[in-house]
Write the structure tokens for this entry.
Amino acid sequence: MKQYTIAVLVNNQFGVLNRVTSMFRRRQFNISALSVSETESIEYSRITVTFDGEELSKQQLVNQLYKLPDVVSIKDFSDQSSLSFDLLLIKMKNEPATREEIRAAAQAFNAEIVDYYKDSMTFRLTDNPRRIDDFINLMRDYTILEICRSGSVSLEKGSTTIKQIINL
Amino acid sequence: MILSGSDILVKVLIEQGAKTVFGYPGGQVINIYDSLYKFQDEINHVLTAHEQGAVHAADGFARSTGEVGVCIATSGPGATNLVTGIATAYLDSIPLVAITGNVPTTQIGTDSFQEIDITGVTLPITKHNYFVGSVEELADTIREAFRLAKSGRPGPVLIDIPKDVQVKKCEFTESTKVDAEPTKAAKDIRIQEAAALINASRRPFIYFGGGMLVSAAQKEMLELADKIDAPIGCSLMGLSGIPTEHPRFLGMQGMHGHYASSMGMHHSDLIISLGVRFNDRVTGNRAKFAVGTPIIHIDIDGSELSKTVNTTVGLRGNIKETLEKLLTLVNEDKKDEWQAKISQFKAEEVEYQDNRDGMTPRNALLTLNKYLGPNTPVATDVGQHQMWAAQTVKLVNPRRFISSGGLGTMGFGMGAAIGASYGTGEKSVLITGDGSFGMCLNEMATAVSHNVPMVILLLNNGVLGMVRQWQTLFFDKHYSNTVLDARKTDFVALSKAFGADGQLVTTVEELDAALDKAFKAAGPYLIDCRIDRDEFVLPMLPPGGSMDDIIVKVGD
């Protein structure tokens, strides 16, 4: 099993997300993160999916996705030469004994305090998925009240764009 | 001109060449049926007994003509009754446009009477589907649906049209029949790689499926076979792709395939596959299939390459054009040793052949063969009779064997045979069994009301024979729910009750006489042909087995 992240550029229409995720369901892939947004063009939206699977089944999944008429192009971001970022909001219990340690850790990760109460503090961190995992793991030594995390958004480095990828 | 949505729908169907459509009216398609009434001089609507009959008929029409089949159903149960037929077409890559009505857009999502989310239901069994939200987008959506259905690897497309979209009016601009998207030959480098493998091969085997028929590549395939001296086999979906009696043709592959065909592929040193998908019914145990034998695979659908078995050279492209290019690169070569081996397999097959006298399934079908014309469409249902038909029926021209391969839909045959008769203008033949026929025999009403010329050969053994065969072989003869003795159906009386003619036969001589009568009859004619319940479909490759496990005789 390996983790993959692919971006799927699709026609911006209702039901398209369903068609794309349905393909993951049919091939029994569990989606671990998903993000959907409009793009530079109102015609297209971009679905970024992170999932675990085997290389062969992933290739088959991508081949099947290409057959959906609403799919414009697909980019595999599983290799290293890409820019991938997640957004994390993490709400920690705020108590005098741990407050400074948590703040120091947050500072080291460039996580920003976006909400501060007597008994809680919430940090925002935007970083690559592995760094976010590291930060969450660090916070596990303290009391985590709640976590909310976006799926990855990914772009290729350099001037290449997803629309330049030729089908299969 | 300003037209209503329902008028636009019917005008575009006519524009797209749909001269005959199949369907069943209902509350949310009344407007469409009013437009069909209005344009009845230009489009023929065939009323079936059930929506499932309509979609199978559209499917049979499409399989026999290569054109897009069209069916119409109302919302809710009308739409869900299409589901089995749409899935049947999906798995066999048949071009269909299924049209459903739905409740008005203002009521969508409120669980109204006969409202169902049919685009949601059919998502995994259609090539694509559409919910038409406004009358302005209707005409182009239908054109797009036809284009998609027949482009590349064909398939079913569903269009869901809410009632208010059928009623509302807008400007309509006439257009012309859409073409399938052009396809190209595979990449030259792949063709060169394939040619190198072929030129190095001493025992090549050509294996084709339904995709070869879609590409109409018979001529090129035969040229290749002649040039490299290769035998040819096919999948169930490939049947009728070349004449049964062609000297290079060894017959169907797979679980119940011809012995010589299966052995030929098993002993080949190169498999050249055209428009197939290496289904488990063909390969048996995939881990033991063609071990060490290189595979060349040409298919219009790139996702089929290396999907189930590893392909040595995968060529994504139009089969006909790819073969044309390939032909220029392969060397002419006689392979006497290989042909001798093939002749030996053929001789062994003759030895295993069922040559008993009397009313055996094989003798029944050999008798039928005497009456088949080169263009007679032969439809089947699913089960033992289907495999006997696939093994025995003599076919000459392409698109004349009409059978549910991928989904294996019992009840497919009645509708499909009706559709094929409309598609070809020929008398069609349905070979069925008492189990399958029992599922959709209501379509006898359709055959009678339209006086459809068709011969129904019902191989009646009073059991669900295929499951029973497995129970005999693998379940200690526990005949759980496969014996139909409690049924007292008199199929001849039933046929007469529907207004058709029919006859019971128990001997080959009686069958011969009945077929003579049936082929002379103007409308539907049913022959209740009694066969023994312990007849087996042989040879049989046990599920999960390999060629070494082939069963050629029972009781050995």
Summary: Strands of chain A lie at 2-11, 31-38, 44-53, 71-76, 82-93, 112-116, 120-127, 144-149, 153-156. The radius of gyration of chain A is 19 Å.
